[in-house]
Amino acid sequence: QVQLVESGGGLVQAGRSLTLSCVASGRIASITIMGWYRQAPGEQRELVATITGGGSLNYADSVKGRFTVSRNNAKKTVYLQMNSLKPEDTGVYYCNVGGVASNPLKSFNSWGQGTQVTVSS
């Protein structure tokens, strides 16, 4: 079983910055992809940014140039640096990690519990 713990959300004024962190733990043999999704009230969950083990990056068009995703493989941690925040960035941000679990070996795709980000105008 793989667990994800997120931190770093909060209330911030437009134009300011926040950094989210997500730590993965449990029986992890390898991690393939780590990333962030968000869900605004009344909306579907959407991709924000992902990073693969090889360092390939993928960003939603709405956050390109403002958000940066990074990972620390040794710490099994993924970060989301969010700059120039806008009110439309408000939502619950979810960490997502995919890879291979050990004992027994099998693929996994886990979600964090979500952390609220609120950007005031």
Helix-strand blueprint:
Layout (H helix, E strand, L loop, with lengths): L1 E6 L2 E4 L4 E9 L1 E12 L6 E7 L4 E3 L7 E6 L4 E6 L8 E11 L4 E6 L3 E6 L1
Parallel strand pairs: 2-11
Antiparallel strand pairs: 1-3, 3-8, 4-5, 4-9, 5-6, 7-8, 9-10, 9-11
Describe it.
With 121 residues, this protein is mainly beta. The chain is 0% helix and 63% strand. The protein contains no helices and eleven strands. The chain has strands spanning 2-7, 10-13, 18-26, 28-39, 46-52, 57-59, 67-72, 77-82, 91-101, 106-111, 115-120. The strands form two sheets. Strands 2, 4, 5, 6, 9, 10 and 11 form a seven-stranded mixed beta sheet that branches. The model has no long low-confidence stretch (mean pLDDT 97).
List keywords for this structure.
121 residues, mainly beta, 7-stranded mixed β-sheet
Short description:
The protein has strands at residues 2-7, 10-13, 18-26, 28-39, 46-52, 57-59, 67-72, 77-82, 91-101, 106-111, 115-120. By secondary structure, it is an all-beta fold.
Number of strands: 11
Determine the strand fraction and express it as a percent band: over 45%
Mean pLDDT: 97
Helix-strand pattern: EEEEEEEEEEE
Oligomer: single chain
Q: Which structural class best describes the helix and strand composition? A: mainly beta
| End-to-end CA span | 40 Å
Shape: elongated
Helicity level: under 10%
Uncertain spans: none
Question: What is the helix tally?
Answer: 0
Radius of gyration: 14 Å
Sheet having the most strands: 7 strands, mixed
